Amino acid sequence: GSLERRRCLYLHTGRACCQMMEVLVAALILVCSSVSGGSAGGYTGLPALGGIYYYQYGGAYSGFSGADGEQAQQLDQRFYLLKLPIARAAMAVGGCLLVFPCVLILVGVLRVPWHVPAWLLIECTLYIVIAVGTVPALYYFFHSLLSVYNSSACKEREQLYQSKGYQGFWCSLNGAEIAAGFLGCMVAMAYLLSAGLAVRDYRTVHEQKQKPLQL
Fold first, then answer.
1. Any residues with CB less than 8 A from the CB of 36 and at least 6 apart, and which?
2. How far apart are CA 59 and CA 57, in angstroms?
3. Which segments constitute the MARVEL domain (predicted)?
4. CA 93 centroid distance within chain
5. Total domains in the fold of the chain
6. Chain segment 93-108, per-residue pLDDT in tens
7. How far apart are CA 47 and CA 39, in angstroms?
């Protein structure tokens, strides 16, 4: 009926569109974070994938044998364990950033801001706090990753794979990690925009609620 139509109208507002964009960006952060974590390592992980990886990396890493193979496995495992806490933290943040706008979309569809206009001010405050908090979170993310890439485990792993002619095991940020940082900046900007839209909508709702009193 008319109530359902009014609820659906929220999905066409600027605030809802911005929130849906936040959901998409947060989902991409979650994906990039999971890619950054990766599997347990190159020597033990890639051969199991088969197909193009098997042939691209020389018949399932045929260059490794004996002590070299054991060393590669150990370095892969050490490197993986060093990155795992960072990847899990990034995935947790991405999950929270995904749930938050979903909840706000539901709140908007249920017309809570219309019945309780003060909610929009709370929403604005939450947006600003999260946007500001994104800056130290991104610093911690990249600082921790660079510490891992500067570790002895990563350096030894890089040298070992290069000695066998394998590429792609450099001690530097990969594309998924750079993308996660860029998407984090996008989230911060989107949240600041949503904060401004929440203040604008608060003024609009407040004015509309005052109109019957003026009559």
1. 83, 86, 87, 90, 145, 174, 176, 177, 180
2. 6
3. 10-203
4. 7
5. 1
6. 999 999 999 999 999 9
7. 12
Cβ neighbourhood burial of 59 (10 Å; 0-12, 13-18, 19+): exposed
Dihedral of the alpha carbons of 191, 193, 199, 200, in degrees to the nearest 10: -150
Residues 128-141 pLDDT 10s: 999 999 999 999 99
Question: Is the separation of the CB atoms in 28 and 207 below 8 Å?
Answer: no
SS3 label, residue 167? coil
Name the DSSP letter for residue 82: H
Pairwise pLDDT comparison (122 vs 77), residue with the higher score:
122
Q: How many CA atoms lie within 13 A of 106 on its CB side?
A: 5
- Provide the domain limits for residue 132: 2-211
**Which amino acid appears at position 63 of this protein?**
G
Measured CA to CA, the distance from residue 181 to residue 96 in angstroms comes to: 16
> What does the alpha-carbon distance between residue 157 and residue 148 come to, in Å, rounded to a whole number?
12
Per the CB < 8 A criterion, the answer to whether 65 and 11 are in contact is no
Could you tell me the pTM of the whole model? 0.80
Q: Which helix (H) or strand (E) holds 42?
A: helix 42-49
Residue 194, both tokens: 């949503």
CA distances to 64, 76, 138, 176, 213 from 161, rounded to whole Å, are 9, 11, 30, 21, 76
Q: DSSP letter for 7, please.
A: H
